[in-house]
Design brief:
Elements (H helix, E strand, L loop, with lengths): L6 H4 L4 H25 L1 H25 L19 H31 L10 H34 L2 H21 L2 H6 L6 H7 L4 H32 L4 H41 L4 H30 L1
Helix pairs in contact: 2-9, 2-10, 3-4, 3-10, 4-10, 5-6, 6-9, 9-10
Protein name: 4-hydroxy-3-methylbut-2-en-1-yl diphosphate synthase
Organism: Roseibium algae
Keywords: Membrane, Transmembrane, Transmembrane helix
């Protein structure tokens, strides 16, 4: 069953059928993303364990430097009220450092899932820099996309009122759709696929709205998981009040765990996006699962024949 309809085919169908196709693709993306995430929880730790240790050491050191003199009033140094300007700058630096390490974990995770890469546990490469730069460009694309939408909604508000206000409410989601159509560049860069921005836009033809809905749902999921993580640590803190070592550990665990949860959710989502567009390309070339099965069968038969021939040669050599 083709779950990835081309836009020119969809345009010829009634609106109801088009919406049904969008819903079908959205459900497919969401189901596959969640299934991928649940199946690879261990992969996240196996591929990123070295970065996780660095993440723990970083947050413990920063938490020790930012510990309030009267003790923590919240779960972590990242959630404490900012008392001085220097604290705000150091906390911003901590946020950036967590993000950079998070990207490294995401790259290792995606590479293991998509191409079964066995990279060195702690690796600094141009690949990571390229992924970070692409993420910055994606963020700028999202912000730039909001500008004309905001102007248009302001003009419509002056003329029609309600229609302009409706556009203003939907503008962030439209911007999210644009960003997601370009977002396949991230997993492509992680696996050294020379995909361009134009390729990403074209490859996701007909997938923009389902991708945007999926990203929205997964964002809500990530936010909920981080919230639950905060509540869990807060509950643990209520049982260990007054112990400075345990407070530092709890302070470290919140940003570290939040980073891992966000990486796990969004890396799984974008790996799914990348996998589905590659499935589309394979379908256009006529490479169905049956094709791969036949190729595997032929390869196995050839291998067995070669093994038999080699065994016969060995027997003749012994004689």
């Amino acid at each position: 069953m083709n779950l990835l309809p081309e836009s020119d085919q969809t345009d010829k169908r009634p609106t109801k059928i088009a919406l049904q196709e969008i819903l079908k693709v959205f459900i497919t993306l969401l189901e596959r993303s969640l299934a991928l995430a649940m199946a690879h929880q261990g992969t996240l730790f196996r591929t990123g364990w070295a970065y996780i240790l660095v993440l723990a050491a970083l947050n413990f050191a920063l938490g020790s430097a930012l510990t309030p003199s009267s003790g923590f009033t919240t779960v972590s140094y990242m959630t404490e009220p900012v008392a001085e300007a220097d604290q705000g700058g150091l906390r911003l630096l901590a946020l950036l450092a967590n993000g950079l390490i998070g990207f490294s974990i995401a790259i290792a995770y995606v590479r293991r899932i998509l191409i079964d890469a066995r990279d060195f546990p702690l690796l600094l490469s141009r690949r990571a820099l390229n992924v970070i730069v692409n993420q910055i460009v994606l963020s700028l694309i999202g912000l730039i996309a909001l500008i004309p939408l905001a102007i248009l909604s302001a003009l419509l508000t002056m003329i029609t009122g309600g229609l302009g206000f409706l556009l203003l409410l939907t503008a962030p989601f439209i911007s999210l759709m644009v960003v997601q159509k370009f977002s396949v560049i991230l997993p492509a860069t992680a696996v050294d696929d020379p995909m361009t921005w134009k390729d990403s836009w074209r490859a996701t033809r007909g997938l923009g709205w389902p991708m945007a809905f999926s990203a929205l749902v997964m964002s809500l999921l990530a936010g909920s998981l981080v919230g639950l993580w905060y509540l869990l640590l807060a509950g643990m803190g209520a049982l260990t009040t007054g112990d400075p070592v345990l407070e530092q550990i709890r302070s470290t665990l919140f940003p570290m765990g939040s980073t891992l949860l966000i990486v796990w959710v969004f890396a799984s989502l974008h790996a799914t996006f990348y996998g589905l567009i590659r499935e589309r390309f394979a379908a256009r070339l006529g490479l169905t699962p049956e094709t791969y099965e036949k190729a595997d069968t032929s390869h196995e038969a050839a291998r067995q024949k070669a093994d038999r021939a080699l065994a016969a040669v060995r027997k003749m050599t012994k004689k």
